[in-house]
Amino acid sequence: MRLYQLDSYATRFEARVERAWSDEKGHYAVLSQTFFYPESGGQPADTGVLRGPFGEVRVLHAYEEEKAFGEVVHVLSAPIPEGAEVEGEIDWKRRFRHMQRHTAQHILSQALLRAGNYHTVAVSLDSPVCTVDLEEEAEEERIREAEALAGFAVYADYPIEAFYVSEEELARYPLRRPPKVRGQVRLVRIGDFDLAACGGTHLRTSAQAGPIKVLKWERYKGGTRVYFTAGWEALEDYHAKHALLSRLALAFSTHPLEVEKPVRKLQDELYALKGENQALKEALVEALLGRALEEGVLLVPGPVLGDLAKKLLSWSEKTFLLLSPEGRFALLGPRRQEVLERLKALGAKGGGKEVVQGALPQEKVAEALDPRLVS
Ligand SMILES: [Zn+2]
């Protein structure tokens, strides 16, 4: 029996181990009744513990064995004996978050339907950033409207209830989407806001799902994927982003909502400096080219080492060694391997094909600056 469908706020229960087995992947048990929610409908499984005469084992995962029978299989950290009486306890903090995600999804799907006649075709609730996939290409304005509507539904504090109806009675209920199961169908009603067939765990009122925040959306499989976060996780997201913005605001001596201005200014300055820097490097390479050709071995500023080496590739009959004051070097020309061996004797390390690049100990730079090395 799935107790979580009767009371999604209960966390402890007693049961008997009806079946227990192990295979190379793990240990499993089916219980006479359970509060553990098996992964389904986009909602992750519960975790927790089972206690008994054997001590305590962790419930790592729960899943439905077969849709037809619907038995809940508990994946355990250690084997337990069949027939044992156990006390189960689900990890409430995790479950509550799942209920917030899941209930928020009901609310948001209904809000999207109302705001833009958008139909939810798939959901993913297995991380704090949840998704709702819509059949239609959604417009920004409609999504914003749906987000506001979801906020109103939260503050309306609608009671949430689950009840069963027969397949024949279903026609009398205006469901958001047709049920996937037959026979007795479990319906979940959120006040007069939303009605859907669902076997999952839900909050007692819509207020507990808030806040519901749409994070972004994108085109997906001809429709739209909407990303959202809800409940504690939305609050944590807010805390994290607020803290980040506050730190940035402090660094820029501005208000958190004004941070964009100095960041853009910094970006503009960076682009301008990059352009200037490039022009200066090119001028410096040109200025150094003559001396490099003359001397073969040359001390050059590190930032232009590579650029100058590339330029010197045109003089393929000559060997060049360029050194930076910090000990970086670029080596090219027909005798580069021979020169590399000599540099290695000074403690250099490096490699490369056309241009050998590397570094040698800074105190050896003066010693390596010897034109005879390449002559
Ligand atoms: Zn549900």
Topology diagram in text:
Layout: E1 12-23, E2 26-31, E3 48-52, E4 55-64, E5 72-76, E6 85-90, H1 92-116, E7 120-124, E8 130-134, H2 140-155, E9 160-165, E10 185-190, E11 194-197, E12 212-220, E13 223-230, H3 231-251, H4 260-295, E14 297-299, H5 305-312, E15 320-323, E16 328-332, H6 336-345, E17 349-351, E18 355-359, H7 365-368
Parallel strand pairs: 14-15
Antiparallel strand pairs: 1-2, 1-6, 2-5, 3-4, 3-6, 4-5, 7-8, 8-13, 9-10, 10-11, 12-13, 15-16, 16-18, 17-18
This protein binds zinc ion.
Keywords: Ligase, Metal-binding, Zinc
Subcellular location: Cytoplasm
Pfam family, one: tRNA_SAD
Under the CATH scheme, which architecture of the largest domain would be assigned?
2-Layer Sandwich
Biggest β-sheet description: 6 strands, antiparallel, barrel
Order of helices and strands: EEEEEEHEEHEEEEEHHEHEEHEEH
Portion of residues in beta strands equals 25-35%
The distinct ligands, each listed once, are:
zinc ion
Provide the number of structural domains: 3
Please state the average pLDDT score.
94
Structural class: alpha+beta
Would you kindly provide a written description of the structure presented here, covering whatever features stand out?
- The chain has a six-stranded antiparallel β-barrel with strand order 1-2-5-4-3-6. Strands 14-15-16-18-17 form a five-stranded mixed β-sheet, sandwiched between helices.
- The chain starts with 11 loop residues before the first strand and ends in a 7-residue tail after the last helix.
- It has helices at residues 92-116, 140-155, 231-251, 260-295, 305-312, 336-345, 365-368, and strands at 12-23, 26-31, 48-52, 55-64, 72-76, 85-90, 120-124, 130-134, 160-165, 185-190, 194-197, 212-220, 223-230, 297-299, 320-323, 328-332, 349-351, 355-359.
- The chain is α+β, with helices and mostly antiparallel strands and 375 residues long.
- It is built from seven helices and 18 strands.
- It has three domains: 3-90, Elongation Factor Tu (Ef-tu), domain 3; 95-235, Threonyl-trna Synthetase, Chain A, domain 2 (Threonyl-tRNA Synthetase, Chain A, domain 2, 2-Layer Sandwich), CATH 3.30.980.10; 292-373, Diaminopimelate Epimerase, Chain A, domain 1, CATH 3.10.310.30.
- Strand 17 and strand 18 (355-359) form a beta hairpin.
- Bound molecules: zinc ion.
- Zinc ion binds at residues 102, 106, 188, 198, 200, 202.
- This is Alanine--tRNA ligase-related protein.
- It is found in: Cytoplasm.
- Keywords: Ligase, Metal-binding, Zinc.
